[in-house]
Specification:
Blueprint: E1 6-11, E2 15-24, E3 28-33, E4 41-44, E5 49-50, H1 70-82, E6 87-90, E7 93-97, H2 109-115, H3 127-141, E8 145-150, H4 157-172, H5 178-194, E9 195-196, E10 204-205, E11 208-215, E12 221-229, H6 234-237, H7 247-255, H8 258-263, H9 273-276, H10 286-289, H11 299-304, H12 314-327, H13 332-349, E13 353-355, E14 364-366, H14 371-381, H15 385-393, E15 394-398, E16 408-412, H16 415-444, E17 452-458, H17 470-500, H18 514-521, H19 527-535, H20 542-552, E18 559-560, H21 568-571, E19 578-583, E20 586-591, H22 595-599, H23 605-612, H24 617-622, H25 638-654, E21 657-664, H26 677-686, H27 689-698, E22 702-705, H28 706-713, H29 719-722, H30 726-737, E23 744-746, E24 750-753, H31 757-765, H32 769-854, H33 859-882, H34 887-937
Parallel strand pairs: 7-21, 8-17, 8-21
Antiparallel strand pairs: 1-2, 1-5, 2-3, 3-4, 6-7, 9-10, 11-12, 11-17, 13-14, 15-16, 18-19, 19-20, 22-24, 23-24
Helix pairs in contact: 1-26, 3-4, 4-5, 5-7, 5-12, 5-16, 7-12, 13-14, 13-16, 17-18, 17-25, 19-20, 28-30, 30-32, 32-33, 32-34, 33-34
The chain binds adenosine-5'-triphosphate.
The site of adenosine-5'-triphosphate has 20 residues, from α4 and β10.
Family: Belongs to the TRAFAC class myosin-kinesin ATPase superfamily. Myosin family.
Domain Myosin N-terminal SH3-like: 2-53
Coiled coil: 898-930
Length: 941
Amino acid sequence: MDGGRKVWVPHQTDGFKLGRIVDIGTDSIAIEPFDAPGTTINAIYDRTFPAEEYDNKDCEDNCALMYLNEATLLNNVRIRYMKNQIYTYTANILIAVNPYYEMPDLYSSNTIKKYQGKSLGTLPPHVFAIADKAHRDMKVNKVSQSIIVSGESGAGKTESTKYILKYLAESWGTHAGPVEQRILESNPLLEAFGNAKTVRNNNSSRFGKFVEIHFDNKSSVCGGFISHYLLEKSRICTQSKEERNYHIFYRLCAGAPEDLKTKLKLGAPDTFQYIRQGCTQYFISRASEKNLNADRKSQEYLKKGSLKDPVLDDVRDFNVCNEAMTKMGINNEDRLGIFTIVASVLHLGNISFEENHEDTKGGCMITKAAEDSLVTAAGLIGVNKEELRESLTSRVMQTSRGGVKGTAIKVPLKAGEAQSGRDALAKAIYSKLFDYIVRRVNEAIPFGSSMNYIGVLDIAGFEYFQVNSFEQFCINYCNEKLQQFFNERILNEEQILYEKEGLNVRKIQWTDNQDCIELVETKGSGIFELLDEESKLPTPKPEHFTAEVHNRNKNHFRLSHPRKSKLKSHRGLRDDEGFLIRHFAGAVCYHTTQFIEKNNDALHASLVFLVQDSKNKLVQKLFEGTKVQAGKLQFSSVGTKFRQQLTVLMQKLSSTGTNFIRCIKPNSKMVDHLYEGAQILSQLQCAGMISVLDLMQQGFPSRTQFSDLYNMYKSYLPPELSRLDPRLFCKALFKALGLDDKDFKFGLTKVFFRPGKFAEFDQIMKSDPENLAALVKKVKKWLICSRWRKAQWGALSVIKLKNKIKYRNSMYIKIQKTARMWKCRRAFKPKYETVKKVIGLQGQMALMGQIVSQLKKDKEAATKQVKDFDHVLLENLKKIRSSNMKRQELDNLYNSLTVNMDQQLAGLKKKLEEQKNAEEQERLRKIQVNFFFMLHFVPLR
Ligand SMILES: Nc1ncnc2c1ncn2[C@@H]1O[C@H](COP(=O)(O)OP(=O)(O)OP(=O)(O)O)[C@@H](O)[C@H]1O
């Protein structure tokens, strides 16, 4: 870094500040910020980043920045946001900054039409462009797609999801056909039951969802399905001061018609324990305010007035939710059932307990003041009031010692235990009601035969607060999994782009977060399993669980004690009160006090029996199939269930093409045009965008279309050079500049630069006129040389080509000759061999002739026989030569000839043998006769 150079230095609130280097030390650099001349900031080298030349110039794709670092990334997103361009790409990832105001025409039907069928990058970045890409990829590659929308609470995930669904429905739906209508209409319903006001977002989704839109073989919408994850249950019973419970509770209190209100015994929000701990004001628009009676308002509301939000209105939204239910086919009776259950949760929360000092067994009782609530709650849940009392204040246990083993006995509960049981019941009822509503929505969406689907995942991003509990642990674990998936996919995409552009570069390596995932999920020592193990103990203790986590994972790089936290508030925690995990996005300290409780979904047996016997059909239905074993410790692991759900989700994601949208919340005030740099930087870090930059650094992070580069520099060069076509123009420049081949690569449509090299190139281009004149001279020289080389190369190539053609010609003939010969041989070889063998047989005829010549008897007949056979051989030779007999036939023929010949030869030999025998006999006879004569007739001397 040179003195006087423009750089970014870290800043506490802005993220980075722009300044100029005034002094370079051994360990740090002194920078004079532009907005505070005369002052200096000292920064370490590693955290000081070069700035782009133009302060106000932005890029639609961060990868096209000259200097690709976290400061320029943050600044590019800022410039665009301030110009009302809320979307920016980083390669194929879309960064979406929440504008916090309705942007005119940004999501209109006209805009939808504009984006249809357009490749990414053709039009300005947009959530529609991602949706369109997903649809195109699905159609072309015939593979289902997913769009992962992530970001912190209030970053705009749900809104983005809605726009994606709108785009898909409007573009490929059957003109507001039932499927897309139902999917879009399910929003108000799911939001009423699953959204709440938090400090970060007035309409915060407290559950994750994966919405699948299914398409038929014509790529038109034909069905849909919604899966949901991790509804935040603790909110049903407690909220912090400025937050609220789920919207439906307030909507029911504010908007229920009088008769329903009376029937469900509803009052102002501050009359209910489960909602009065938090904010009890309604969201009310001016129009609705007039119709709201005072008896529905809380004291806080009466004092402070209503909450304001452009889209929320509890009175109006009650009706919207009601209508949405009707559209989903939920009839009057079912609707009443649902509202009854919601009200029952409120009344259940008002049942309070006190220790019963008269009870010798140390049990508790329901307070006098809560008797009415008990009656109302029992009535609404559809159970007997006394049975509800019994089930809340005692629980059924199975004896294991004394008495008859296995006998059920009632154990009275202490006030605190009864309260936990009541809360567990309320949470179970509400969360099962939410499951039921999602089920009804799914049932209401028609489903044809699906070819592929596009799934949109709207799930909370990486979270860390002052106090982080089991919810943050689960969501951060989920984000670790998604981050691993993200890295793999992004790298893969980058690699595919390199291949498509023909860059021929080596594979990029990256640090995996598998070790962090293993810390949470490994069998035996994983935190989830240790938690389940602890929960199954007779008396589970958070301290013991925490100690186990540390003991079983000693020296694990990702795990540490809270005292090692950077935050003072965490350092106060004892080793057995929490643990610190080094996540990919930063270290998070978890308080483990409530882990065991939050990980257990089970109700104690008496409560389950109670609700299963309910006269309220819906309550009965909600608890259908819930298993209980009286006396046994009831445990149903939330963590294990979530892990299983996540496994299914990850399998789904892995089998689809993936697209990523990273939503960014620009400020905590939830207002438009306010860019809080430091917080945005941390969100970009959590979204893995900085790690994407790190990955890119290994490859060719800066890339520009030839035409863009050409337009950028053509004005600097004389006409004879600017007349060149963009690709040649770029090549000429690079070669003339003598840039190292390793620093850039020419693709088919773009030129790619190694980190920082684009900037270097730019610097040379824009240096002083003298240098430019020399450069132009060099470019011209290079052009002449290259054209001369090209001409030479052309001539040489023609000669080479001619020789090649000649050579090939001769080779073709040779190949033909060889092939023909081979074909002939293959066709004639059996014939040839058989002929040779038959001629061999003819040779043996001489032997037959010899035998015949020795015969004295039947010589003529034998001679004829030999002649005939010779004739047969000749005939067969002719036949073999003239016909197209197969090898098998030829073999058969030859074999029959050999057999024939052998037989004849044997016959002749036999005859000859017989002749010889006869002659021998004759000779012996003659000797005998002579001998006889000699004996009898020769005179004795
Ligand atoms: N594209 C947008 N245009 C206008 N306003 C928006 C846009 N995106 C988000 N908002 C505003 O920001 C608010 C919060 O957005 P949203 O509910 O989508 O956030 P979220 O990330 O889903 O939060 P949570 O995780 O808490 O559910 C919305 O109610 C809306 O007012």
